[in-house]
Design goal:
With 338 residues, the protein is α/β, with parallel strands linked by helices. It is built from 8 helices and 13 strands.
Length: 338
């Protein structure tokens, strides 16, 4: 990619929750934008989105939308990415795709900038953004794997409804109001009531009994860390929280490991904030991570049931670091001098 002082950027799916967050983060981080296109479906044309103190008119996403565009951030779903990302690449644009469309394609780099930026290479066409639950986990796992070599991971997630989009946010809000008013809570987005409930069901079930979301965490983690020998046992759960995902992670390593060393190791890592003072009731909380860049880690402790294993708790904003920020960080890596 030719280095410039400023770049023409497009956001596909700009009117969605993640697309809006992408615009916000591009502005906050002062990404060197020359011109910016906000692209969405035909029904969104005519809307205006704020950017850098101006009003950005939404344009219809088409095959020819990427002429003259240097970098396109996609967050409009796998179907849209499959349809339009190849056309964007053909026009000379680098695509950073937030959907699942290309993540497991062998030739497509799957990137978390704090973990494996070198996977991008010199001439990428499409770069895949990992799943939100995978991103926050691998940020915490990478330093541990580098120092101790991870053998096995057992992870249970507690994922907010914003991971399912605006309709799910509205559903939790409306169900909560209805229940507190003594009314029925009718499910629509989810198969069961989500308010005051937990659903051990994210995405479709597979023949194995695991869900697609759970297998994303397995396959994506192995690809990002570049080690298919790591065994991963996931359970993903939707909880009645609006923003930020939380994860309980147990890591078994090949050699000796202890909580004190891991706490010190993670405290020195970019992108990680260790909050681990249980005697003062200080540990990562979903409400504290909202809108923050960092992956928060706490409750770091030795596993009393297994040799060479530790437990810890990881929290991150799924729309922020788990989606939009990670994509913008990839874009920043593309444009910075190497």
């Amino acid at each position: 990619m030719v280095k410039k002082d400023q770049y023409n950027v497009a956001v596909a799916g700009a009117t969605g929750a993640v697309g809006r967050k992408m615009l916000e983060i591009l502005e906050q981080r002062k990404f060197p934008v020359a011109n910016l296109k906000a692209l969405a479906s035909a029904r969104s044309v005519g809307q205006a989105l704020p950017f850098n103190g101006n009003s950005l008119a939404v344009e219809e996403l088409k095959d020819d939308s990427f002429e003259g565009v240097d970098i396109a951030l996609f967050s409009a779903g796998a179907g849209v990415s499959h349809q339009f990302a190849p056309a964007a690449v053909k026009s000379g644009c680098v695509v950073i795709d937030n959907s699942s469309a290309f993540r497991m394609e062998p030739e497509v780099p799957l990137v978390v900038p704090e973990v494996n930026p070198d996977a991008i290479g010199d001439n990428p066409g499409i770069i895949a953004n990992p799943n939100c639950s995978t991103i926050q986990m691998v940020v915490a796992l990478k330093p541990i794997h580098d120092k101790y070599k991870i053998k096995r991971v057992v992870v249970s997630t507690y994922q907010s409804v914003s991971g399912s989009g605006q309709k799910a946010i509205d559903e939790l809000q409306n169900q909560t109001k209805n229940i507190l008013a003594g009314k029925a809570a009718e499910p629509d987005v989810y198969p069961h009531q989500i308010a005051f409930n937990c659903l051990p069901h994210i995405d479709n079930f597979l023949d194995s009994g695991y869900t697609k979301e759970e297998m994303k965490m397995v396959n994506e983690t192995q690809k990002i860390l570049g080690d298919s020998s790591i065994r991963i046992s996931p359970t993903t759960v939707r909880v009645p929280v609006f923003y930020s995902h939380s994860e309980s992670i147990n890591v078994e390593t090949v050699g000796p490991i202890n909580a004190k060393e891991v706490r010190e190791l993670l405290s020195g890592m970019d992108g990680i904030c260790v909050v681990d003072n249980p005697e003062s009731n200080e540990y990562p909380l979903a409400i504290d991570s909202e809108g923050r860049d960092e992956v928060f880690v706490g409750r770091i402790r030795d596993d009393i049931s297994c040799e060479n294993a530790i437990n810890f708790w990881v929290v991150s904003d799924n729309l922020h670091k788990g989606a939009a920020l990670n994509a913008v960080q990839i874009a920043e890596y593309l444009v910075k001098p190497r």
